[in-house]
């Protein structure tokens, strides 16, 4: 392994070392834990780096279900008004894959910051013409009015349709699936979207599935907004193995414990659900007209 790759892992934080050491054989782990429990707070920098290196080598030594490094090319499309968390959640997980190359694709021929629907500005890394020809993953985020406008952007839709042919996986989160549908990529496919827009998928010839993440061949679609984290972890597992995905999940401390059990229309209070659905009704009909 290259030195810079090890350095990148080490820079993720010494806190990873105890997590990764969990891959050691149980007897060895129990013996080492006894000494580390009280001494870990007093490690020198050199000792901490040694612990990190040993943990790294433990993972590298796995024979199955683990690929430490790779060269995946992942294109993540930006457009004005996209939902920031749709993009940032999966991007965090993809960026944790050592060696993976993430391309943030501008909707125009320049690299000016693109403003999300929530006001967060993201600076693209590549224009559409600079996007690699062959992709491991083509990713499209969703949004509200921004996605509605993107559906009317023929150049953007043509880019999605064209890149889909040369991508190993074509994916979206939330209403990003409506952009895939507009590009003609959902016909006969099982897919999902934000719960309030799920009924629109048959308009594209898709089979709607009320599920956090839906796989159908090379098509991967995620539900609304936060489903992008589950979506991203499943893709990491497919590319690098379940252990890699579990390690990133622990690094991110993704252990959902929401204060309210109101994250789906089936669980939400009917008053909350019905009124939110009413608020979103004009957007739903606008999407229907755009289809």
UniProtKB/TrEMBL annotation:
It comes from the Bacteria. Residues 73-237 form the DJ-1/PfpI domain. Signal peptide: none annotated. It comes from Methylobacter tundripaludum. PROSITE patterns: PROKAR_LIPOPROTEIN. One of its GO terms (biological process) is regulation of DNA-templated transcription. It holds the Pfam family DJ-1_PfpI. This is Cyclohexyl-isocyanide hydratase. The lineage of its organism: Bacteria, Pseudomonadati, Pseudomonadota, Gammaproteobacteria, Methylococcales. InterPro entries: Class_I_gatase-like, DJ-1/PfpI, INH-QAR.
């Amino acid at each position: 392994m290259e030195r810079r790759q090890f350095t990148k892992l080490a820079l993720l934080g010494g806190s990873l070392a105890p997590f990764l050491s969990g891959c050691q054989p149980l007897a060895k782990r129990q013996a080492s834990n006894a000494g580390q429990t009280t001494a870990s707070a007093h490690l020198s920098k050199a000792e901490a780096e040694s612990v990190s290196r040993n943990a790294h080598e433990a993972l590298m030594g796995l024979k199955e279900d683990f690929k430490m490094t790779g060269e995946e090319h992942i294109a993540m499309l930006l457009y004005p008004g996209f939902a920031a968390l749709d993009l940032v959640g999966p991007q965090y997980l993809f960026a944790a894959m050592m060696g993976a190359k993430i391309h943030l694709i501008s909707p125009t021929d320049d690299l000016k910051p693109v403003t999300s629907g929530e006001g967060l500005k993201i600076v693209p890394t590549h224009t559409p013409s600079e996007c690699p020809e062959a992709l491991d993953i083509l990713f499209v985020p969703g949004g509200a009015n921004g996605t509605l406008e993107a559906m009317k952007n023929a150049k953007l839709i043509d880019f999605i349709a064209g890149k889909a042919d040369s991508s190993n996986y074509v994916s979206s989160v939330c209403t990003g699936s409506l952009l895939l549908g507009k590009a003609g990529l959902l016909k006969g496919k099982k897919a999902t979207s934000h719960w309030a827009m799920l009924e629109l998928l048959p308009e594209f010839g898709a089979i709607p599935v009320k599920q956090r993440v839906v796989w159908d061949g090379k098509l991967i679609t995620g539900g609304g907004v936060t489903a992008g984290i589950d979506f991203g972890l499943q893709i990491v597992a497919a590319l690098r193995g379940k252990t890699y995905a579990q390690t990133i999940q622990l690094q991110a401390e993704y252990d959902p414990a929401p204060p309210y059990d109101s994250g789906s229309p089936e669980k939400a209070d009917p008053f909350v659900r019905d009124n939110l659905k009413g608020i979103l009704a004009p957007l739903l009909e606008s999407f229907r007209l755009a289809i």
